[in-house]
Amino acid sequence: MHRGTDTLVYLRETASERLLVQVSRAAHPAVALPAGPLGLEGEPLALLGEVGLRVAGGSVGGSVALPGDGPAAHVWASSQS
Q: Domain range for residue 11?
């Protein structure tokens, strides 16, 4: 989904769950991604890390802003329909 100098973002998917994973080795600018390809809606559940994630503008035309802290690891979950 995203690769930067100090951060990596990817999706881990199964038939029933979609996890958005972000790992960062140092602080970096916040990462903005389109919500549609992520398949996340509303406020996905934070499984790792203390930062909540909110989808702004809806799942089709909206976006999500991932944190710029680091070193850090974050995982958010959303059930697939």
A: 2-79
**Domain at 62, CATH number:** 2.60.40.1180
User: Which pairs from 25-30 meet CB under 8 Å and 24+ separation?
Assistant: 25/70, 25/71, 26/70, 26/71, 27/68, 27/69, 27/70, 28/4, 28/68, 28/70, 29/68, 30/65, 30/66, 30/67, 30/68
pLDDT in tens, 54-75: 777 665 667 888 999 999 999 9
Q: pTM for the full model?
A: 0.83
Task: Say how many residues make up the chain.
Answer: 81
Task: Domain count for the chain, please give it.
Answer: 1
Q: How far is it, in rounded angstroms, from Cα 42 to Cα 25?
A: 28
